[in-house]
Every structure is written in structure tokens, then in C-alpha cells.
Amino acid sequence: MTDHWQGSETTVTKIHLLRHGEVHNPAGVLYGRLPGYRLSERGRAMAERVAETVADRDIVVLVTSPLERAVETGAPVAEKLGLDPTTDDDLIEAGNIFEGLTFGVGDGSLRKPRHWKHLRNPFRPSWGEPYTEIAARMRLAMERARQAADGHEALLVSHQLPIWTVRSAIEGRRLWHDPRKRECSLASLTTFTYKDDAIVSIAYSEPAADLLPGAGKTFAAGA
């Protein structure tokens, strides 16, 4: 799409960063990049809801993280819009040394001295991939998608921490943060509008808000 911006013709492109839907994780572990973690029944319903929500958008590019939950979240969108999705390793979840563990006070993970060294620097963070590296690779994925969708829209399926980190970097906030304060719920959309190659606005929406845990809708046990 072209537009007139301050007297000159510009190209407007939108990049939507979609967080995947709910994951089947009965053990409550930090699954990170581990294989085999797929969407729950609720997560599949979230993915369908997003597909319905974006059905009339001018999305011409669909790219997902290579992890199963992201690929599954993008599948209904691909079917609805008739797109052939691709994967991009730069959209993957952040690396974390605590993958496969339950992580919290009192459950054993934090009580073991061998883990304490990994908690020494929350600003980097010392337990996983540096925030600066997460932001940089996400910007690369977004720029590739912007060029591919030039003048249209692209949907990129990723994960909460990478999405929040790149948004924070773009908005000029510090990258270390309280995870409880991230504005990036399951199946949410963070939308970046570009005029030519410059980001001019950021918007956030939750098309599956009524399907979030605690919102009232129930799903079958074991989903």
C-alpha cells in the first residue's frame, strides 16, 4: 500500500508478531526450545480465533518459529489466507539453561546451589540468551519479512520473551524487566507499522482474550 506522508509518496507495511497459543504442559516445566511441546486444545482454539481475526487483512507473508507450538499456531492462518508458511530460526524462543525444570521458589530448582551461579546477573541475563542478542535477531527477522511483504502485511509467529524484548528495544525501554509485567498474552498480536523502512507506530491486541486461562471458557481435561 502506498500513502502520502508529509508530502511524499511512501510505502506502508505492517508486521504482526503473534505469540503462540497455550501449550500442553501438564508437568509445568520451563520448556523453552525443547521439542515435543505442542498446543493444548485451548491453544488450538486460540490459533483458530486468530485466523478468523486476520482473515480480511492484507497478509501476504507468514513466517513462524521452528518450534512445534509456533508452527501449529500459524497453521490455521495459512489455511484461511491460502499462504505457504516458512520458518525462521531468528523467531525461536530464547535460550534458557533451566529448560526442562520446574522453576520457582520452593519447588527444588532454586534451592539447589548448583543453579545459583546462573542467577548472578539478571540484567544480561546470566541464565540464558542475552536480551541484546534476542532483540537483534528479532529485528533481522522483522526486516526480512518487511522486505518480503513490502506494501502489504506479514504475520510472524514467535514467543513471549522475544516479542516483548524486541518491542522494548524499539520503544527505547530497558531490556531487563519483571516477566509478570510483559504485555504479550497468549495468541496476542503486536503490530508494527512501517512507512518505508521506519517504524512509525506500535499497536497491541488480544483476539483470543476470552479464551485465556481464567477467562471463563473451559476445555477438556488433559488438553
UniProtKB/TrEMBL annotation:
Q: Which GO terms describe its cellular component?
A: cytoplasm
Gene Ontology MF, one: phosphatase activity
Q: Which InterPro entries match?
A: His_Pase_superF_clade-1, His_PPase_superfam, PGM_Phosphatase
**CDD domains registered for this protein in UniProt:** HP_PGM_like
Pfam families from the UniProt entry = His_Phos_1 (PF00300)
Q: What's the protein called, per UniProt?
A: Histidine phosphatase family protein
Name its species. Answer: Phytoactinopolyspora mesophila
Q: What is the lineage of its organism?
A: Bacteria, Bacillati, Actinomycetota, Actinomycetes, Jiangellales
